[in-house]
Protein 1
Amino acid sequence: MQKGTWTVKAGLARMLKGGVIMDVVTPEQAKIAEEAGACAVMALERVPADIRAAGGVARMADPSIIVAIIEAVSIPMMAKCRIGHFVEAQVLESLGVDFVDESEVLTPADESHHIWKHDFNVPFVCGCRDLGEALRRIAEGAAMIRTKGEAGTGNIVEAVRHMRAVMAGIRRIQGMTTDELVAEAKALGAPLEPVMEVHKTGRLPVVNFAAGGVATPADAALMMQLGAEGVFVGSGIFKASDPEKVARAIVKATTHYHNPEIIAEVSKGLGAAMAGLDIKAIPPEELLAPRGW
Amino acid sequence: MERIGVLALQGAFVEHIALLRRLGVEAFPVRLRQELRKLDGLIIPGGESTTIGWLMQEFRLLEPVRKLAGQGFPIMGTCAGMILLARRVLGLNLEPLGAMDMDVRRNAFGRQVDSFETDLEIPVIGAPPFHAVFIRAPFIERVGDGVEILARLPDGTGIAARQGKMVALAFHPELTNDLRLHSYFLGIVRGDVER
């Protein structure tokens, strides 16, 4: 009997496919998420919109919040650590979280290196903006990838940019001849092995979700049609005027992402979505997506 | 050619469809109740049982699947699918299908760090052992008279069962390259495998 293997780590990500992972800050929110059909919750001290507003250094959540949320729900529970902060990751693993998100939403602890994730029994999910970044994270041991988008904005534009970049990168590699792959790996800044795998299979070696800006059912379905295998919704649910209704609607739209009649039906009367931010109005030094190397 | 539907509300349904196609049957996703028509068998995949169960309820799939099960229709459930087929589930906030006379415990082995892979002896598929992947898996707490346990862990824990034309597995054959359990289910669909 073997635990913590690559198969069980990447396998949990595969069980999350087609689902919605929701940011929650209290056990009550976690219960609402579970009852609304979330396939997992992400436990945080503050949702990204509030992290953005608060400024300062954003760190791993207080373990007491994480434990309270673990006890509140039966679905998988994720929590965020800072980029490169392997001790925060060790703490999260010891608390029993099911997935660690090495996240650009928190303030990076290391500006050159990410965590060597193969050392852990708990699986990791990491953000990316393009294929090279995705493959570097996978080489370090990420069992799941999410495109970054721009968290806490309620604006889908960056999520679309990143998903399109990843999918275009995959199609490009797929169309290459084998002798072109070494130069491509060099250009991507990614190891050759996962580049060869993408060439052969036409997909990332792990599951890829969309994150960072999903605020409506149509946003979720858009990301699914662009190639996401599921979605993370951060501030979009509990910053909406009727979180329960928005949560249910986004879960249904993610399942029926190819069915505009159902998306129309679930989008009726949802109340105010989160206000949202124009990316161009954010000072460049406050953007979260460029964090990660 | 047999037509097998794979419930595609959430979870690892693509993997099941790919394995079934390798076995030469017609396999396609089922998301709406009208897609349950003209099927020879149904697979309920792994995923989150609360999510799949809630979506089945919202899209009115619980009753038609319950009815099919009652008519002796072939259904195979893996992990979340096993949970949904059970009569009673410990740790589920909604009512399962109740298609098989067994009680199942959710997340029975613990959290994700306790997920594991191991080789299983499964007499109905013969040698060699089946390499089984258990992810936040359930196990069987109790079965009724009509339910046969197909496999156990070395400590005796029941992790695979059959009742009539229904098969429930606590692990994920869809995550491996071993087609034998899908073949076994297709044998039941075709009527080749008798009790």
Note: The first helix of chain B runs from residue 13 to 22.
Protein 2
Amino acid sequence: MSAVLVVHGGAWAIPDELAPVSVQGVKAAARHGSSVLRSGGSLVDAVEAAVRALEDNTVFNAGHGATLKIDGEVQLDAIIVDGKTLAFGSVSCVKNIANPVSLARAVMEKTSHVMLTGRGADKFAESIGIAMVPTDKLVTECERKEWEKHKKYIAAVNEEFNTQAHDTVGAVALDSAGNVACATSTGGTRHKMVGRVGDSPVIGCGAYADNISGAVSCTGHGESILKVTLARLILSHVEQGKSVEDASQLSLQHMGDRVQGAGGAIVVSPSGQWAATFTTKRMAWAAAEDDVLWFGIDPKEKLKEKLSL
Amino acid sequence: MLPVVVVHGGAGHIPKERSERSTSGVCSAARSAYKVLKGGGSSMDAVVEAVMVLENNPSFNAGCGSVLNVKGEVEMDALVMDGSTLSSGAVSAVRNIANPIHLARLVMEKTSHACLTAEGASRFARSMGVPEVPEESLITEYSRMRWKKNLAPDSNPVECQMGKMGTVGAVAVDINGTVACATSTGGMLNKMEGRVGDTPCIGSGGYADNMSGAVSTTGHGEAIMKVTLARHILFHMEQGQSAEAASDLGLAHMKSRVGGLGGVVTVDPQGNWAARFSSLQMAWAAAQKDSLHYGLYTGEHFTQIIEDAH
């Protein structure tokens, strides 16, 4: 069986002017994650590296380039899961951290806990020598402008939540031994309340990985994803014998029918099946499998090129 | 069969001198919630009532009586979920309020979000006019004694806590067949500042869906999260398992897959209920058809008539 690594850059109505850079960004992240795997890195190394690449890319709503919450500051959430042991780490509501996914990994590896929040998470970061970056450094000029523009239209936020919010990045991966892992990172919804935690850092919602069934990373309307525990729901369909594609579609459709939420998910199964599915207008995704790099952004779009690392 | 409410006061090993208080505590919470249901209250009203009674009881690890974090402070987590709409509200690492479950319900009802954490949760509490209480009022002599004891370098808080934990929770079905769950905790003994456990995480600390039922969990938080225990049990019920069989399957899976112990209270929309645990004990009580059921050890099931149900 060959290794597979899939990434997404968020499910939302990506405007045309952002489409090419979004696709470019997910392709680069998939290449990077895949090269980590090929050079002998672990699965957790690979999903962390892929998500870091997306966090560092200002096109995406995670790490550098995150959306601003209601008081104009960033507030970041992330999770990482190892499907072999079900070990995971997550952080919610951290501020001055450039790569929340790496902090989530440190929670998994260096504490007896699985989730740290707020000031406690920031203090932990400091205690293990993760560099604190000034808030300003994580804010892009473009996001500041968007935030100003939207500030006066909080009432319209609901509509935006479902379809247009700049959202979340993630990665899932499978190695040749059949192990799976995943990671998700986000800046959350624009103009969110101080302290709002979305689906991303919540196990079973923003992400889940289990060698028995597969790995999932989700994106979309966070409150809806929480309500249906989307990642866990998709894998429960896989456990019942559905293909990863059908499982994703059924679950996203359920989320639309039951709680009127739109979103997307990437999935890999231990047998090497993978899928990138969404009910929003667009989702930038890329998958590295053997010597091929698959990618797309519009519904049903599945392009490929030779994978050059 | 309806209405019904089932309450737990935490899974673990309850020291003998405290077991009587645990049992009477869950019984009075179940009675109180049952009265709400009989008076026409919703399942959400009932589970919040049950959990508030337990939060206000210093014998349990929630609200007043919460365990302390490594710095000797109280940080609490809570979750509510309504099975008719899948709406939920949660708070994590919140300080200086008496009833986190009430704040969780406010998050569900008054914001467009599902979870607020730490300082943001406190800020929201103030904006809602929830009274701020001094930390000292949430701390008991017992919780301070255990905190001190576990500061010793050779102590094992996880072990000690599996000994005596006391997350509280409730599930209920009202006469309309709507299910709800609520869970509240002070978390893990001597936890790091900012540690969040299973309780406020939807699917782990609780889940409620009118299509299948409702679950509130207790036990080793990290293990519960790894298997998203509440959601896992409801998957089994969706596949046709009874509340009792699904609860046992979920707990057995958690034990074999990640070596964790815990307990759950579970209901289905028809009013079938279960209180199951893999730990040595779990204080639980259920009220249905004007009878009160309760127990503490595996296999224990006492019944008495509720005299003042009407």
Note: Residues 4-305 of chain B form a domain with the Glutamine Phosphoribosylpyrophosphate, subunit 1, domain 1 fold (CATH 3.60.20.30).
Protein 3
Amino acid sequence: MSASDFQSVGTETWRQDGIAKVTGAEQYAPDISVDRMWFGRVLRSPHAHARIVEIDTSAAEALGAVCLTFADIPKVKYNERIVSTPPCLYRDRYVLADKPRHVGEAIAGIAAPTEALAEKALRAIRVEYEPLQTIITMDQAMRDGAAPIHDTIRLMDDDIPIEHNIAVARTIEVGDIDRGFAESDIVIERKFKTNRIYHAQMETKTVLCRPEVDGGLTVWASTQSIHNTRILLGEIYAIPLHKLNVKKAALGGSFGSSIQMNSVTPICVGLALKSGRPVKIVSTREEDMYDHVRYPSEITLKLGLKADGALIAGHMRADIDIGAHNIQAYPFLGCMGGFWASLYTLPNLKYEGRAVYTNKTPSCAMQGFGAPQTTFAVECLMDEIAADLGLDPVQYKLAHYVGLGGTFWGQGPASKCIIRSDGVPELLKVGSEKIGWKNRPKAGSGSGRYRRGIGMARGFHTSGVGHPKTSGAEMIDYSGAIVKVNEDGTVDLVQSLMDHGGGTNDAIAKIVAEEIGVPAQMVGISPVDTRTTLYDVSTHATRGVYAGGAAALKAARKVRQMLLDQAGRVLDVLPESLVIEPDHELGQGVIHCPNLADRRITVGALAKHMQINSLGTIAAAESLRQVNCPPAYVSYFLELEVDTHTGQIKTRRAVLGSDCGTVVNPKLAAGQLVGGLSKGHGYALIEDNHWDPETGELASKGFWVDGKTPSMSESPLLDDVETHFAHTFEPTGPFGAKGLGEAAGNPAVAAFANAVHNAIGVRFYEVPITPEKVLAALAAKQGPGAPARPEEPVADEPRLDPAPAGE
Amino acid sequence: MYMATNTHILVPEFDYRRPGSLSEVLALAAEHGDRARLIAGGTDLLVQMKMERDAPSLVISLAGIEELRGIASGDGLTIGAMTTIRDVAGSATVRRQYAALHEACQAFSTVQIMVMGTLGGNLCNASPAADTAPALLVLDARVDLVTGEGGRSVALGDFFTGPGRTVLAGGEVMQSVTLPEPGAGTGSAFLKISRVVADIAQVCAAVRLVRDGDTITDCRIALGSVAPTPLRIGRAEASLTGGNGGLEAFERAARIAAEEIRPISDVRATAAYRRHAAGVIVRDALTTAWRRAGEGGGK
Amino acid sequence: MNDRRVRFTLNGEPREVSVKPNDLLLNVIRDDEKLTGTKYGCGIGECGACTVHIDGRPVLACLELAVAAEGREIVTIEGLAGNGGALDPLQEAFLDNGAVQCGFCTPGMIMMGRALLDETPEPSEAEVRDYLRGTLCRCTGYASIVQSVIDAGAKEAAAD
């Protein structure tokens, strides 16, 4: 089956929230206001690590503000990301800091009738700190005698001591690496380092909380999971869940930074409860920069191979700087190991991961959850091995990758599945052809100022965290959906799954339309909250379409059967003799009997018939966990141009391929890939964050430009970017679909590094590959004594000339 | 820590006046002295005020003073201090005769900032990284400053005294920027290197050459983001003046420029990178200006 | 710091509001006028999410004093669609091209795209990228947005 066999799946439609989004009518959390609302602000620590001696809020309260300090909050230690199961959920934080562990950590909350008063009150709070040793690097953190950032961490009912600031460590072993390395003809080891970049989602973390007269709360928040937000708030503030309603608001980007309940959310709730008023907190951009970053990594990868390149053994050690809190280090470490094990067949492997506390912004998921970091190391090293052995990297990778019939570790050791769809051969073939792989230059063979190079990398992300076991899971993974037929034959899809913007909800609406047999535009995505929806764990792990879509499909299948049963009665035929098909002219689903032309009724007419005869509503509510976690493969082929005089790198061409199974939203799917390239460009070449080693402050001081988010000008031209999709069908996915979102960027960093190598003959093991590093590497390549400045004649016209309009 | 940089509201309180004439502005400026700030585009001042680095008790808007706006040709060019960067960039005369200034304005941050920001504002803000400053320096710009007592004309090279500091006295207002008419055989160019296009320059450079056949008869080279103030590089200029143009000479001058500057390492670039990149863009800008000078028409 | 009355037109309607000298136009538009399509993204002119048109030119509402709006014509994203809700061709092009993902940058992007099309009908790709460079988007990689502005320009030229 392919997309062309479908009526709704794979068709182009305007996204359902599209008109609201292009007219400014869409309501994101910062856009929502309620009557009697006060404004909240947060007092944050100027110290990276300190004890609070005293907080004096009297002057702020005298101004009319309500203040929330550590003394006011419930002493519930929690982990803000309750995707992990309790035995895997390391809890180390309170609503407000017991002691500040990074600059910008929340010390107190303020609520006041106006934002101006809230700002004044914020400045009136006096805090006396006793500074402690500031630990910025992992080396400092693990040194003997380093100040403990956390003394203990809570797991289930135990307080586990923290040694050397190592929050958690994991080891995964398969086979016997000692034997494997002993049997290897070649052993190669490299160290890789990735950066600690900022999510740079457009919407800063926001929350609005309204206390209700029954003692309950209504909450609007930036979140990837309204249900997990509700559960956590219920636990922290001891409010029964039926009185606590979290409403879905449009999400202005997230990229993983709101899988966890964001730090402002419970503070706002505390302020609302204390003041008895609705309170809204919209984080400022600088606060947001101090709230979340991507996990950086230091990876040592050692591979043992036979003379022909066959991989025999591998040893990966990964140290992860998690910053001041352990948001999700345990699953992250597991994912890195699992993704590594799933890239290339390795009969003997050992993975050792450590997560280390430092006094910096806490790290969390960002599009890929360990896959970009791991893929950077593996895809670069595979490229290097192929070059050393005189093999074509594409052919070498094709010969050894984990594909059809192999085992895929979707999310660490506890979520594995057998691979049943595999578009890698097609992706690499098409990508090679489109980029002109065969004609790529010999690495470093170019001359002149501008040198072009072609590089590739492949990778994947999981589609959800499904697996067959009924116990021992590390992560929760199920979705729910309510599908109901309205009295005119339209359909409501009621689901708590969040859409990050990739079109998840639209894709699922198409899946529902396809299954029932109505035109796609007849399925509406309902505005929802936690009260009116079934539980959904979170829109993360690229699980939206594959797992959330499957839950909706299950409900739609039931609805379809109910329609057939009811229509059979009305039309006096066996339900088994009926089909439902969309009639696009009528704008209705039509139920008819192919053998008896006069037996037909529209879904609308049937629904109306049922209403006026009091026969009930056709609806189904279903919950579902996928038992598989198929890989969504992605390939990157890039052509870059390095300016050897300035060290700047430009993307000249990009061919991006995806194996997401059936493509449900074609243009939005392509947009995911192009978006992945943009974020990958930033990750690979420019973005980073710097914390002052003494003070622990962010060097950016709130200026976004220091995050270096790529703009339109840094992105390649329209004609230079091509996307393509493998013709695969995932048998376990809804209408053959699997994931795409996070996969879209996972191989990007490796592809950039490999293309830079092809251009200038230098391998970079650390990103971002900044102009400074490029120049230093070129100078080093020319050997000692060579001038720091390239002295070649200018063969080309200088291309920095920015004056097209003037010429 | 209350993290003022990106607050939703402007926290400092102040009074606001929007006079209708320059004389009123001068009177207010004289009366309130250091407690008053003039606001042009506001894109620098309001950020400084948000960060609470500046807290004037009075903000005097120049928006109502039409005579401070516009570009007038005659003997050279006079650009009103309140002319927006976007309008300078869009001027056909500037593009034709003062390419370095055109390019500096085109390279200026973002279009929204170009639409709001003014030439006078960019100069009076006196950032070492101000894009227009090196361009105006090589074009021999003078700035006209005025108080209620009268006016004075200051060479732009004498205007900047340090980061954020100028010779502007309390109550003094920049009225306009004047540029001499470019002679025959003049060519100029501006180049900038930044991390992302909307960023402040890691380093920027402007050059102007006057060409007579193969000979350089006059030359200006200036750089931004490489010292406490935008900087002319006299030794590099001298190395070219009177000699023949060409890659070798430009390379030599670029090397001198790279040696002469005093860059620092900061969040945007290392000093070493600035020094290196300065050499590259000075050479490239000289190459471009040389070509333009040869194309005639003062381009 | 006294309140003062400021008169301007907002999306074609005359308005008179009471503001303080330090009130920013962005907050007047969002909080007082309840037009929340104009977004706060950074507060210091780095992201373009707050772009509105003042007298036809694209301006950052986060760096504009509300008192300075006296006598001026302001158009926000809510003012682009015609009477009866007919979408602007640029809004349609965004939907046709899948140029809207999370949508938080979309109002600023469309206001910039519209300003460009008003200045330069049928812009080239280079002109689009140059003009919209100050509006950040983290989702799309920009290609679909650039395409939308080009498409809308071509469509408007064909309709003329």
Note: Chain C has five helices and five strands.
Protein 4
Amino acid sequence: MALIASISAILILIFIGMSVPFCFLSGSLIYIFMTGASTGTFVSTSYYALDSFSTLAIPLFMIAGTLMEKSGIARTLIDLAEMILKKTKGGMGATIPLVSCFFGALSGSGTATVTTLGSMMAPRLTELGWDKRYLAAFIAACGPLGYMIPPNMNAIIYTRVSSASVAALFLATIIPGILWTILYLIINRYTYHHWYNPENSVTAKIGMAGEQTAENGATAKSIIVEEQAADKLTIIKRAGVAFLMPVIIMGGIYSGIFTATEAGAVGCVYGLIVGVLIFKKMSLKEAFSSFIKTGSSLGSILIMFPMTLIFTRILVLNGVPGMVTQFITGISSNKYVIILIIDLVLILAGCFLDAGVLLLVFTPLLLPTAAIIGIGEIQLGVMMFVAVGVGTITPPMAMNLFITGKITGVEMMDMMKPLLPFLLFAAIPILILVTFVPAVSTFLPSLILSGGM
Amino acid sequence: GGGGNPAGSNSEEVTYTWKMGTIYNDPASRPDYNSFGLSMKKFVELVNEKSEGRIVIEPYYNSILGASQELFEQLRRGELEVFYGQPMANVDSRFGAWSIPYLFSDYDAVTKAIASPDAPLFKLSQEWVRENNAELIAVGPSVFRGFFNVKHPVATVQDLRDLKVRIYEDPIVNLFWKDICNATSMPYSEVYTGLQTKTIDGLEFADTSVVSSKYYELGNYFTDINWQWTSGGNIIIGKKFWDQLPEDLKEIVRECAWEAMEYQGIEEKKNKESAYSTLRECGVEIYELSDEERQGWIDYARSLDSRIREAIGPETYDAVVEAVKLAK
Amino acid sequence: MEILKKLDALAFKAIRTFAGIAMVLLTAVIIIQILARYVFKVSIGGIEETPIFLMMISVWLSAIIVAREDGHVKIDLIDLMIKNKKILYILKTVLRCLTTVVLGIYAKFALDYLISSMRLGDTTPGLGIPVWTMHSFVFISAFFMTLYYLINSIKAIKEVWEWR
Ligand code: NA
Ligand code: NA
């Protein structure tokens, strides 16, 4: 009874707009007041929730991500993707998933990927005649690639509530991440023409306003192409510098020079070197502001850990993980039906809950059920990450859509039509793939980390 | 907490519902090489049975209520009723005394000195735990820690020179390892991958844990240096919960605890034998030290004595050494 | 009042700067550890807990400045559903008050916890710092978050009151 009351209270409070961490705190307090249970572990639980070496990777990869943007590395990635795809059909649209992948190799976060791409690519592609609604939806949908391509911040959160290894999880999402990108590229190829009209481009509009002749237009275009050609070498050189970073990070982790957490610090140093010394795009003062930005936003991101953990403990002490197992296995004893139910639960939960909550609260609830039907911690992790990704683009609670909406000024409802193909033919199929084919997740970890997973 | 049953006024009918927390694995999902988890399960079953339902203990494995430091803290603050595991030395430096390197020569010495109700070091430990607001009920034979690595056989202290060894935050562990190898702190969850990628080359670990953690899949070398006996099997009850228990129930809990701890020792010894054969089957080379080689390790440990004595507290150190001598 | 405003601005700046420096130190300590392992082949005992502590302190302190701007993660879904600005504002005021109460209770727990930690006198495993100093940040954070939510609530109530 008290449990149901507190769970309902949390959901209602989240829905009506109370700050999420304090919704969980409220729910826990409601439970305590209704049952008279002890409050003595509230604060110790929240204190120890953050006391972990692997959690350090979160601020480190966040700093590294901010440095990516300021150092000019992000710009280089966009230039490179444009250079590669310029001549293909729907090419400029295809740069979105490609840059997300590139950026993902440097950043650990889907949110950072969406924010960076949204602010750097959306205005430029709008100028070229792409529909804002499509851009907002597509960039949001590509967010998950930012962590499916390692490093992966969600993997770090996941290790807080499971015993899986970060290094193995980093490898596990690569294949599904690449498949996901390919599906996006295909979907873009077949739907882009609804959303792209070169006549809406800024140059075309200027051309019409100035009653420019067709010839003049042609010369203008050829000038742009020439400029690009002259830049090619610089772009490739710079891209080389940019891509040295994932080589150092992943190479360092898998050749045993440093751990996944330490790799975050190495990424920061590399970002600093590139930004300050090589590209000379930022001063040390600007670099320090990246550290300030991350440090002062930790309170909003990591405060989720203690506040949700207090509530998860209450769930655990009331045997909820066991109940979940009983409930799911009660519906069917067929392994595949159970897996489908887990998927469904995750998709539904993802509609209403934020990524951190999904990982921190649902992992302990689902681990026993997963164990019964033979889903390992690595595979469950990948399932969770894909589900979290789906959750970021399913309203009402859709972080990525919020972000691109804010940047582009497009209403969330207007993004639904262009979003639907990406959701139905890429994101959800990938979720089904990783749930039914464990090898997609476990192949790379077992190959590279020779030894059974 | 201890919930009173409103139906009865006499103590016979009061039931106590207790939470018991540990970092050890749930034997339901990890039945093999899990003497700690199994003995905890045994204890819970015995108490629930022998008290005829007057005490109901609910077990929480896998650090689900927190890691050791957090669990022991909850215990001392009266938030957790029963803790199974090792209280850390940073809480009370005297607890470090249990893990003085080469304090005990074998399990027999352990039983005589600490793992039996009248053992001198057990009595002493009970005093320390009591001063931490808790009651030490029983101590198990626990485990000795050897050395596992993926690079080359290790026979002497000098053989560690070129190895990156995983350690964890603990004054004694730090003292012993930091000067003889390249010691690196690493969370337990990263050890397997750390060994695979060679971020670390090895770690001090019990033979049975090498099997249960599947490190043997990575091949290679184990040496029974048994440098440390780790007091991992302690059943401890929070003071206020212990004190409110009627004498007959206290007796039942004590009995069950010692029976469970004895079971831990039996399981561990049984596991140890099969661990060696499992490890060999999996291609791990097991190096058993000769008496002379072992003496070399002991000599190294003894050279640290003054620093260890300082870390634990001279009085405690002397009292412990005395107690162990007395038990022989 | 002026002094309070100045203090508020000062605290805001101090926390941001502290968090920035903490992040720099945290990165540096980890880099030094890697270098120590490979270049100097030594282990630096005890310091590996410092980055974790720096992170924890940053989390608790920066949570205050997030609370100051009522910026903790929330969903703005209700804005789309309730079009009446006044009702929306009243709802937000109620939520702020509720948050103040909830945080206030938590702050009380944090104080109890801190006091009992001081009595227990534990130290950290690596550097042997008294654990209560770390626990104090939970209290400081909870206390000031409560304070800022209280101030924001009072402001909101005043505004609602003036509509009459
Ligand atoms: Na990534
Ligand atoms: Na969603």
Note: The longest helix of chain A spans residues 214-254.
